[in-house]
Design a protein that fits this description.
Rossmann fold; five-stranded parallel sheet; 30 helices
């Protein structure tokens, strides 16, 4: 490798020669390459060289590299194609052409260019790495994983491939493998702030909150103005109830990226907004600027803006302004959703048809006998988080939050069909195996816990399966005024799932299906198979209902359950701010503030709609 001094000397000589021979294409080429190697503007020199040396492959290739760095993608593509026209077997030109096409969003063409590069040079690790990125964007996850792993076979020290493989494994919920990949990337490249941040996100999912916080802070130590790490640290601190610190992190993120609407939404959710709020003023200004601009906001940003403004106006009692923002945010979100209300109705019907009295009688008597699990379920925003906070305040009970474990089981196929469509192939031994697997998952999260709560609301779908699989588990069903439940769903932009909640009519129809399913479970399961708890009753008399819940769980009373808002465990749901406060009445009959907007919801709820 030539040193910087040699580059400068060659540049100087090239410029002297060009004074005498201004049409010397080779000299222009040398000058362009020297400037390129010094990180300086080489575009004019390489353009001149390409003009004078139209058949020189290297000149077109180097010009393409300069144009790619300048993000002049169409011109870069043309230069690479000219280089390949002259020398079709140049693997590096195929690779960089793929990069130019990828940056233009032409994923299939980029993949084809990468595959051509690999035909020429099968040991090109970086091509496999970038091909993995393309395949992941195309949703071809198995192929993407294979591509990353091939890149790492060829180049074990390839930090970017370890990091990208970690992201893929994280998305596929293979969290242990993802963690190993992130840590390997950081072993090779300790200053990779993206890897520190994504590792922090993963550790947060695993409830290893102190380690997650340390990862975010490590990223910020390396790059103090890294807005994403500030924002993610803020969300972690908010989950842990450290609201003042969370807000400080959000403001740090906004100092770097004042237009980050995801962070502004998080800041609006951190606590009750008051008139004159600085963040609210910035959101209003953003809305006005957007209205006057010819360029609309990206959809994700617009959704965050409208849900944040809805929350701000709702908190400050300006309901006439709040609901139009909720309507627009939901309209945008609904347009991205694949929710089909007819399919949901068929799904409810299929569960009720298959989990009838006969099937339950045939399968009862198996399962795992552990008393460890406490399920807290119901519609989202019905009070499940409040009840879990009360229960998990009991000494020895671990609040695990919303676990995906039952969802994993309920999606398993048996003889080609989901379990509820093929109960004939399910037997007591299988139920015992699933039950033991579920209990082992709880034990791995909290090895010394007396009981462990699973607060996944959607487990209402599988109450019958829980009863068979875990006959000694406690099941607490939390229900709330249908209109308040649905309004609370509609005014919340969920992190993921809950696709039924972004249209008032579809939301009402889904709630009605949920209510029918819960009535079915009451009819086909033995009395006492689960405990119904009304949110409004908890609000009206917290101690009486808390005692009732703890008694149902088979435990002696403990006064710690009355101080649930002092429980410092992490709360990852939309209710994270509310459960840091004592019981409050303002959420009861909240729907009345928005009554005139809710006719589509009331029509869909039918007999479940409130008197008005």
């Amino acid at each position: 490798m030539f040193g910087a001094g040699h580059h400068a000397e060659l540049e100087s000589r090239a410029r002297m020669l060009l004074e005498r021979y201004p049409e010397a294409g080779f000299v222009w080429k040398v000058l362009g390459v020297m400037l390129q190697m010094q990180g300086r503007d080489s575009l004019l020199a390489l353009r001149k060289a390409a003009e004078l040396l139209p058949g020189d492959h290297e000149t077109h290739y180097n010009l393409g590299n300069t144009l790619l760095l300048l993000n002049r993608l169409n011109e870069a593509e043309a230069s690479y194609r000219q280089a390949l026209h002259i020398r079709p077997d140049d693997a590096d030109a195929c690779f960089n052409l793929g990069n130019a096409l990828w940056k233009q969003g032409r994923l299939d063409e980029a993949a084809a260019s990468y595959l051509k590069a690999l035909k020429i040079r099968p040991d090109h690790a970086e091509v496999y790495g970038n091909l993995g990125n393309i395949l992941q964007e195309l949703g071809k996850l198995d192929e993407a994983e294979a591509s990353y792993r091939r890149a790492l076979q060829l180049k074990p020290g390839y930090a970017a491939a370890h990091y990208n493989l970690g992201n893929l494994l994280h998305d596929r919920n293979r969290l242990g493998e993802a963690e190993a990949s992130y840590r390997q990337a950081l072993k090779i490249s300790p200053d990779n702030v993206d890897a520190h941040t994504n590792l922090g996100n993963l550790l947060q999912e695993l409830d290893r909150l102190e380690e997650a916080e340390a990862s975010f802070r490590q990223a910020l130590q390396i790059k103090p103005d890294y807005a994403e790490a500030h924002g993610n640290l803020g969300k972690l601190l908010l989950d842990r109830g450290r609201i003042d610190e969370a807000e400080a992190s959000f403001w740090q993120a906004l100092q770097v990226r004042p237009d980050d609407l995801v962070v502004r939404l998080s800041l609006a959710l951190a606590r009750k907004v008051k008139a004159g709020d600085e963040n609210m003023a910035a959101l209003i200004a953003t809305e006005q600027a957007t209205r006057n601009s010819a360029t609309p906001l990206p959809v994700d940003g617009a959704m965050c803006l409208h849900f944040a403004l809805g929350k701000c106006y709702d908190d400050t009692g300006v309901h006439e302004k709040a609901f139009p923002h909720f309507l627009e945010g939901n309209r945008l979100k609904c347009a991205t959703s694949g929710f089909n209300p007819d399919q949901a109705a068929q799904y409810f019907a299929s569960i009720m048809q298959n989990f009838d009295t006969e099937a339950l009688g045939r399968l009862r008597g198996g399962g795992d006998s552990s008393p460890l699990p406490i399920f807290i379920l119901g519609m989202p925003r019905s009070g499940t988080t409040l009840v879990e906070q009360i229960v998990s305040s009991y000494p020895g009970i671990h609040g695990a939050g919303e676990l995906p474990d039952m969802k994993v089981i309920m999606r398993r196929n048996m003889a080609g069909s989901a379990f509820h469509d093929n109960l004939s192939s399910l037997d007591q031994a299988q139920l015992a195996s699933w039950g033991a697997e579920y209990v082992a998952g709880l034990q791995s999260r909290a090895p010394s816990a007396l009981r462990v709560t699973d607060k996944m609301p959607a487990n209402f779908l599988v109450v019958g399966l829980i009863h068979l699989m875990l006959p000694n588990a406690k099941i607490i069903h939390v229900k709330r005024n249908p209109a308040d439940t649905c309004l609370s769903c509609f005014t919340q932009l969920f992190k993921d799932g809950q696709e039924f909640s972004y249209d008032l009519a579809e939301l009402g129809r889904y709630y009605a299906g949920y209510a029918r399913l819960m009535a079915h479970w009451r009819n086909v399961l033995p009395e006492g198979a689960f405990l119904d708890v009304r949110y409004e009753d908890v609000v009206a008399d917290q101690e009486a209902q808390s005692r009732r819940i703890i008694d149902y769980c088979g435990l002696e009373w403990n006064d710690a359950c009355l101080d649930f808002h002092r429980n410092e465990r992490a709360v990852k749901t939309a209710s994270m701010a509310q459960v840091r406060r004592p019981i409050y009445q303002s959420s009861v009959e909240r729907w009345r503030s928005y009554e005139k907007f809710l006719e589509p919801l009331f029509d869909a709820l039918g007999d479940l709609a409130p008197e008005r």
